[in-house]
User: What shape does this take?
Amino acid sequence: MTAPTSKNSKTGRTRSSVLSWEAALVGLFLLTLMVGSSLSDAFFTPINLSNLAANLSEIALIALTMTLLVIAAEIDLSVASILGMTSALIGALWSVKVPMPLCLLAALLAGGAAGLLNGLLVTRLGLPSLAVTIGTLALYRGLAYALLGDRAVADFPTEYTNLGFGTLPGTEIPLPIVLFVLLALTVGVLLHATPFGRALYAIGSSETAARFSGLRVERSKLTLFVLSGLMSALAGMVYTFRFSSARADNGVGLELSVIAAVLLGGVSIFGGRGSVIGAVAAVFLIGSLTGLLQLKDVSNEILTIVTGLLLIGSVLVPNLLSSFRVALENRRERGGERP
Assistant: This one.
């Protein structure tokens, strides 16, 4: 008769599967780079790779806090609208001669307030985050148009626009990617090496059990939504300066790419499982695939279809593998119980 499976062994298998998925993503990323370089001499060049990385900046930034939210079994579909709203706010304030530091401060405050509203609706009223953020997705985009209309503001100071499309001195590394790396390290430590991060895994695995364990579930979730709003506002700044244009429609549809990257990175849509490394690897995998398709003159419609297929696959494939793994373990256990 076999011994019962311990909690530690289950945790070990979970970590092993996560690491295997992350390794597979890194392998696919390297394979994409190899295929791209074989199909086009312009693909694997410092300038092209720099452009690919820069184009990922906003998605990569927002994916960091989206990873935390999804691990806690929540989601924020309003992130791209917050990006557009803060971009429009920067443009509206700058057009009436408000100093740029105050414009940026107002954008951060607006992003934090938007995240706070999302969090209060979810934690205080008990509404599902999916429904709440679908509603605020439209609300914040509407506010962006109320602020700026169809206008575009583009006369920003050079010292600020250089932060959006400049590179690290002596390299081709975009400055927004440097910012992303610093924030990714911070979020990684927060998630994987602090009590707050461990609490997020517990909340995502079982909210009821987390409450009985004394964890402050509502406060943790509220903090996550505020962080998501702040990160979306920061992404709005990067987007505005990178394109040197503040528009109300900036970032439309970006939330799909963010969610696709997070789920493809191995973060469970049901919560309780995932890592920052997996999400980061998925962001760069999607970026390299998109860059390769663009070099082959693939239309934006096809790119949207590819993003949708990745989103479906990122949910379907891990669940199929998990079901297969459980069935295989059950079969082994039944085989071990035979005399």
User: Anything to note?
Assistant: DSSP finds 14 helices and no strands in the chain. The two ends are 8 Å apart (CA to CA). Residues 1-12 have pLDDT under 50 and may be disordered.
